[in-house]
Design brief:
Helix 2 (57-69) packs across helix 5 (137-160) and helix 3 crosses helix 4 (90-104). The chain has 207 residues and is an alpha/beta fold. It is 39% helix and 14% strand. Strands 3-2-1-4-5 form a five-stranded mixed beta sheet.
Length: 207
């Protein structure tokens, strides 16, 4: 289970405001990529908080409500759109969303713990933590906020384009989604640079 060991080590170096940063939605064929940044209090506890991928949707929703309602916790979430993903590539768009999230934090952190590898040209000092959402509580909290925020947005997109079933698969390339793409063609939320979307010759707006 994640804990505050990494954050505490930075606190001992005199770095007080440590932000955990994580993303959700790098792999889907549609929708934005989301990133969240979270600063936890030094004595923070939250039973059950873990990597969002290990939790049920109901558990993630409950943890999201607890985290975002906590007045002692600072958090921000940001997106990079499907259009930005196509223009920049998914890695650069993910890093853009992370920068937007961190720059939206108030107060501003003095150091970040980022899930995965270090990010080139990131605006703040940081450490990359491979599989960090299973090690750091602040990264785990960011993973929950990013995932729930994106899932909620995909449910909104589903109401706009119900033929794709976004509320069920969140834009991932499931059998259902691929069949809908074959029938309807991509909508404006699809990532045109991702295969098989890029290979389709059907009408681009496929309403």
């Amino acid at each position: 289970m994640p804990d505050l060991s990494l954050e505490s080590a930075l606190h001992r170096r005199g770095l007080r405001k440590i932000a955990g940063v994580d993303e959700a939605g790098r792999g889907p064929l549609a929708g934005p990529v989301a990133a969240a940044a979270v600063i936890l209090p030094a004595d923070f506890t939250c039973p059950g908080l873990d990597d969002s991928k290990k939790l049920s949707a109901a558990k993630r929703e409950a943890l999201y409500e607890r985290l975002t309602a906590d007045p002692h916790l600072s958090w921000a979430v940001a997106m990079a759109t499907a259009e930005e993903i196509d223009r920049l590539n998914i890695l650069r768009a993910t890093h853009l969303a992370m920068r937007r999230a961190v720059e939206s934090l108030n107060p501003s952190p003095c150091h970040c713990l980022i899930d995965g590898l270090p990010v080139r040209d990131f605006p703040l000092p940081h450490d990359g933590v491979v599989k960090g959402d299973g090690k750091s509580l602040s990264i785990a909290a960011a993973s929950i906020i990013a995932k729930v925020t994106r899932d909620r947005l995909m449910r909104e997109i589903d109401r706009e384009f119900p033929q794709f079933g976004f509320s069920r698969h969140q834009g991932y390339g499931t059998k259902e989604h691929l069949e809908a793409l074959r029938i309807h063609g991509p909508c404006r939320h699809h990532r045109r640079s991702f295969q098989p979307v890029s290979q389709l010759s059907l009408p681009l707006d496929g309403a």
